[in-house]
């Protein structure tokens, strides 16, 4: 029997979550099967995933029509569809949640992407989502923006699990970790439990796509062979190097004396979650963002195609702390060739938010059209 390499990740302390959710895989039993046999221990979703799942899919028509007949708005119908999928997925993953003592078994749902710069609006929506969905193994996704950090702190302080998303830079990750810690400290000061789960979603492939584009532009103007070689050698290396440095920052923060006070009260570390793990460049390994970032107390959320590839041919070894000098050298070399990595990260987060705003708007328009079509029929 062929080896399922995905199952090996758990032996190395890394949990596998799937970056995909639709009513089809819930109703067909496919999700339950993946949880039971393939080692899937959580689900992440976002507006783009739901736009793909709902738009043009007849499986939702009956629920949409029922919403129209009940006099619900487009927003109301959207939330009813999404909340139902989230609840049912959470119920499927509930045994994982209980068996892992609340470490895994979560389903993540994102607040509206239109709230990315609205701290108070984000907090209000997170609290509402938590109350309406009413499942202990749901995580509310909040983007790691300037407004988002304050929201993360408040939502954690309210005792709600949080998935901080759209993190690209190590400095933004660091702010995320301290927002989590401040939220727990607020709970501790009130004598409340600090055993609240959280992950920090650190994005990967989008970084290499953008950096490689800039390296290609520089290559076209490279004055000599030596410069060409240096630029070529940097391609496809930034995301993994950046993630390895983030993991070192994680270790630094969670050995701090301030954190140890919370550990004594029962707190768990906010795990780093590797996101955007599908390889965009066909010249690179389709499991490069899995093989190179295996390490303890981490999560890798993969789309279905990466899961299938990893089951088939991942090479699982603890590599998250290998070649750290090389990782530092990659980041330093980018500056030497004129690429401002900090600026790239700012652009990536802005583009990331836009990649959720547009499909969210498209989905709402598709729903409005579908509502009209169903009532006309």
Characteristic terms for this protein:
377 residues, alpha/beta, TIM Barrel, eight-stranded parallel beta barrel, 8 strands, 58% helix, globular
Structural description of this entry:
By secondary structure, the protein is an alpha/beta fold. The protein has one domain: TIM Barrel. 58% of the residues lie in helices and 12% in strands. It contains 17 helices and eight strands. It has an eight-stranded parallel beta barrel, surrounded by nine helices. Helix 7 links the parallel strand 3 and strand 4. Helix 5 packs across helix 17, helix 8 runs parallel beside helix 9 and helix 10 crosses helix 17. The longest helix is centred in the C-terminal third of the chain and has 36 residues. It is globular.
Short description:
It is built from 17 helices and eight strands. The protein is α/β, with parallel strands linked by helices.
Mean pLDDT: 95
CATH topology: TIM Barrel
Q: What would CATH call the homologous superfamily?
A: Aldolase class I
CATH architecture: Alpha-Beta Barrel
Compute the separation of the termini in Å: 51 Å
The CATH first-level class comes to: Alpha Beta
The percentage of residues in β strands lies in 5-15%
Put simply, the count of helices is: 17
**What share of residues is helical?**
55-70%
Largest sheet: 8 strands, parallel, barrel
- Strand arrangement across the biggest beta sheet: 1-2-3-4-5-6-7-8
- Principal-axes geometry comes out as globular
Q: Given the helix and strand composition, which structural class is it?
A: alpha/beta
**What Rg is obtained from the alpha carbons, in whole angstroms?**
21 Å
Total beta strands:
8
Number of domains: 1
H/E element order: HEHHEHHHEHEHEHEHHHHEHEHHH
Which regions are unreliable across 5 or more consecutive residues at pLDDT < 50?
A: none
